[in-house]
Fold this sequence. Notes:
The protein has helices at 11-35, 39-57, 64-92, 110-133, 143-171. By secondary structure, the chain is an all-alpha fold. The chain has 5 helices and no strands.
Amino acid sequence: MRNDPEKDISITNLVAAIFFWLLTAGWIALIFFLSNESGDLSSDRSNAILKTIELLFGEGVITDYILRKIAHVLEFSVLTVLTFIAIRFTNKVSEIRSYAESPVKFIKSDNEMYIAISLWLSLLTAVVDEYHQLFVEGRDGSIKDVLIDSIGIFSVLLIIRVGFSIYLRYLGAKEVRYE
């Protein structure tokens, strides 16, 4: 708790929250920008990256299809990390208005809340992105691509959850649970 009860807002956490929400919004904009490219332009970009990889590591190391699916996993992994961090800082802006002070608690810890909201926002972005591609020339939306995006989302959240548990065990602490 702070010394001055009238200053219930942490400026550091507020600035960090704004910064990470801007990064998150920028990353979502990049995802939509790339998925707004025509099928031909997207294929040209993918082929250029594939040729660069073949120059560095030799031919046949990776196919265009695998490269595109890895890109899906990576772009949604990054989105999930940015979202998680933005939510974490947002919750720390004010101790008085944090989830810990909420009268209704569906989720039993802050970390679980960060994970749930990150999951929801990232999956929503994946679904809307694939729906958007239905209207782009030479592209198509695919449930399979949403599932591939989910691999990146779930992997990151699993790493965060396990990493947090290991970190707490290392400290000899237990997660704060709300009742």
